Amino acid sequence: MASVAYFSSSHCRKGRRRRVVAVALFFLYFCGCLVSLSCAARLSAAMQKLEVQKHLKRLNKTPVKTIESPDGDIIDCVHISKQPAFDHPFLKDHKIQMRPSYHPEGLYDVNKESMGPKERTGSIAQLWHMNGRCPEDTIPVRRTKEDDVLRASSVRRYGKKKSRSIPKPMGSDPDLINQSGHQHAIAYVEGERYYGAKATINVWEPQVQQPNEFSLSQLWILAGSFGEDLNSIEAGWQVSPDLYGDNNTRLFTYWTSDAYQATGCYNLLCSGFIQTNSEIAMGASISPVSGYRNSQYDINILIWKDPKGGNWWMQFGNDYVLGYWPSFLFSYLGDSASMIEWGGEVVNTEADGQHTSTQMGSGHFPEEGFGKAGYFRNIQVVDSSNNLKSPKGLGTYTEQSNCYDVQTGSNGDWGHYFYFGGPGRNPNCP
Hints:
By secondary structure, the protein is an alpha+beta fold.
């Protein structure tokens, strides 16, 4: 019996030792995993930081002069030959075209049109002008900060729109559109060859509900199909906390030659657009903005294809020719546009299953009219003879008119115009 008891006792002690060893090994393994995960996380963070710093170095060129804007922006005055456009391999030996060969015929006749005495609007500047201007032979570039890049889903996607962010008025599948989360209230023309477009756009500061949503008012110059080969040139104003880190209303441009997949970007955040103007900064804040039942402010934007050089030029206001998109950036737009769109766009993330309360335009519906609703006026297209003319067969489109709507009109002072926008979520738009 004694020997049996001894064996049993010894066996139990060995079992306990094995369990202790097993627990110890598991503890060591667990700690090792934690250490390795911690190391992996630190390594990943370090690699991301290095990638961000490399990207910032590519974007932020050495300035001739730096201006601090009242809104916190830093504007770098970069020599015109050192701007981001010239990182493009096809632009290494490009000779800058300082001005277009031709402006569209009729441009300055239109600019002399007057508004009624009760409808006069004020002039607009950019906030950074309060603290200085850039010298000749430089262009103003809004400096990109580390936080700007970190807000993006990845360094590669920084400064780019998501795909399917463009309205397709004709033959659209509503389910496909709504899946993209983008909603619009636009006027458009199609069916001819277009060589540019113009509009005077009412400027507001709409409220944006979620940081990853935006609200903008712009014009689109479009060619190609709405699949993977869409060409688009875009310009207007936007409020985009995700892109800029605040809720300011900002001037912006965009381009893509493959439906927002790999090519193109906002403003000067990639190589492509060549800026020639030293006074207006892409992505900088616009001031002042319109107030409800108060003073109204608007901006003029013209984009047209130079008949001689073939490049697509942009003019801001009556005086500022900003620069151009070289025609080689595009396939279909190398020739002409097949559709022009004007209007508003928002992102609807449908947080908590409800429609976003992000506003479009002024945040009020079109029927409220002047001083209350946002508008586009004097909308025109450029024809094959480089003439500005009124659009024929103007159509309208919106996915949910009880959330955002559009109403067109025409008169002597405003030519073809439309009011647009809305509040988003409301009793009729849950």
